[in-house]
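## tool: complex_structure
## caller: assistant
## args:
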Amino acid sequence: AMGRADLWMIAILGAVSLAILFLLWKEFKVYTFDPLFAHGLGLKTRRLDDLLIVILVIGIVIGIQAVGVVLMIALLITPASAARQWTRHLGPMVLLAAFFGALCGTAGSLVSALGTGLPTGPLIVLAATIVFVVSLVFAPRRGLVAKARNRQRTRKALVSGGAS
Amino acid sequence: MTIELWTLAVALITAVTCSVCGVFLVAKREALVSEGLSHAVLPGIIVAFVLLRDRSSPLLILSAAVMGLVMVLLVQGLRRTKLVDDDASLGIVFAALFSIGILLASLELRNVHFHAHCIIDGNLALAPLDAWTVGATSLGPKSFYIMLSVLAVVSAFIWVYFKELKLMVFDPALAQSFRLRPGLLHASWLGLVSLTTVSAFETAGSILVVALMITPPAAAYLLADTLGGMLRWSVLLSALSAVGGFYLGFALDIAPTGPMSALAGGIFLVVLVAAPSRGLLSRWRHRRVQKTALFEHVVLRRVARGESNIGDLCAALAWTPAHLESVSARLCQAGQLNKSGAALQLTDAGRVRLEHELVCP
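## result:
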């Protein structure tokens, strides 16, 4: 149940939080990975933490409109966890998480709008979960398949090394 | 027993059972598992309801509890890949299960009346109306007996496995090296927590189950030094909030579950501020005592080194004269320092104190 006014509200709030994220990118990066180091550099970590929470709250307020209170948690965590599987850098991870989020949002809304009468929120979350499971299993290097193959190769190398 | 007393009994036993479960969750720092469980069980309830078409069947509780166990196993499996954080895996799994539950409900239960507030608040006040009757005599509400048997099972489990649970909570690695299989124990324990959550659902509602599970144990955590002590405090505080909340609700003429958890929250706040050794007040007092002792020590030490002039001391320590005056006045009063004009002098008592306090070259 969202109207045109809601859409504008979501767009503006989203733009504000994206702008904050973009402007303070370096600071957020060093703060998330090494808060002590950030503090040592003279950054106001307390202020950064507050600001990060503000962005988070904006995101949650927007998301509650779209999927509801409980499933909001999934929208925060699942696309980001899926993105983590594919990359080792923060920038690509953020972009990928955004892409996954957009993909699942579109897919969920489409299926719901096709006249099935199914609720949108749970469909979006299920789509995100599917993306996550695929990423968990098939991602290069960190994926479960890649890890198993890697282990097998190591074992083989060990065995043949012992024989020679 | 009157209806009022039966309602109170159900509230009391629900609160106590939840808080006993919560003790181990809070001590193991996984309190949010209760929140996850209370949502992840939904598909279990829906599936059982669709199959049985009977809202009061005990199989509903059982199926929901099994769903809770499934969530626990999935979370543990995800954790074991070491690819996803504990919190994140809980969030991913329970939200996915909950959305499956909602989808199932919207597919199958379009014509069934769903009361949102029934899920959030529960219907404690209606509990006594669903009585268990044998022949013509009523033996009291069914939910009382359900919660009583859950409490019995949970207490028995804790009683038998207390040592193992303790080790699992505080040092899982050691438990593993003793071959106590902490993973298996953890899963079965959370299975019981899931059973408790689902059973308490009916009387307390999903959000309040979480409140009852976390708040009294969190307060007990600040009061007790041992796991046993934490259990005792937690039972006491939850019983207090159940009884108090019940009468509060009675007086305000509203459903008793809200006041119950509000009271539990109030008790937690009081404990947070006033707990004997870990409360905010006592920590603040402790810090002040330490600060005073440090100031006095610094002055004694300087005077012992021969820096006896008050003006020089102020300059060397970068203190205001008023601050130095208050510290030295306290020391003079304690007989550890003598003041003659602008000069300070160490007494024997002051020398003894310096020798007792930390020695540095």
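## assistant note: The two ends of chain A are 70 Å apart (CA to CA). The helical segments of chain A are 4-23, 25-33, 35-40, 45-67, 69-86, 90-116, 120-138, 144-163. Handing back to user.
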